Amino acid sequence: MTITLTTTFELGDNVTLAAYSKDEHVGTMVIKDGKLTYHNLLTKEVEEYNEDNLSIFENYCNEKLLTFKKVSDRKYINYQPNPKKNNTTDCTFRAYSKAEGITWDEAYDIASEYGKDMKLMPNDHKVVDKILKEKFGYSFTKFGKEDKKTVNEFAIEHPNGIYIGWLHGHVVTIVDGYYYDSWDSGDRKLKGYYKKEVL
Hints:
Helix content: 25-40%
Radius of gyration: 18 Å
Strand order of the largest sheet: 8-12-11-10-13-9
Number of domains: 2
Strand content: 25-35%
Oligomer: single chain
Shape: globular
Order of helices and strands: EEEEEEHEEHHHEHEEEE
């Protein structure tokens, strides 16, 4: 099946395109294995389409006057350790899992234990900060307003090491120049990052 927006592509293609509304980057479209996934940066929602409902996405793009550009030098690797592949608010568990080489269940248990002890939710930033520093030995660096980079830019500039990027309402693991996430968060700006201290 072919759809035409400002470009033409096949669902059989494997491609990542950045969606723009005028000059603002508003989303990322990933076509892989016959499925189209749209990461809406404005609503933070992830929408999936196939041949049966692709016209809904085409109508949305035409209504919003979206244009698409190929993304070059993308450092994104899809990573979803959730045993049931559920799309849920578990970015902190995914981050611990990838960075520390533990299972999603182990990460969940660690976060729950700390959250219960601190009387906060397991994904609260204070809990995440304590786990990364106390449990896993990371140090934190906060970006100034002029220093902020996107996740993809940070990954390109850090080809070695283990980092966990801190964004507004999200965390993402960057390992040896690639960022691992269940969706492509590469165009979102980092507020700061945690770096794994090597003894």
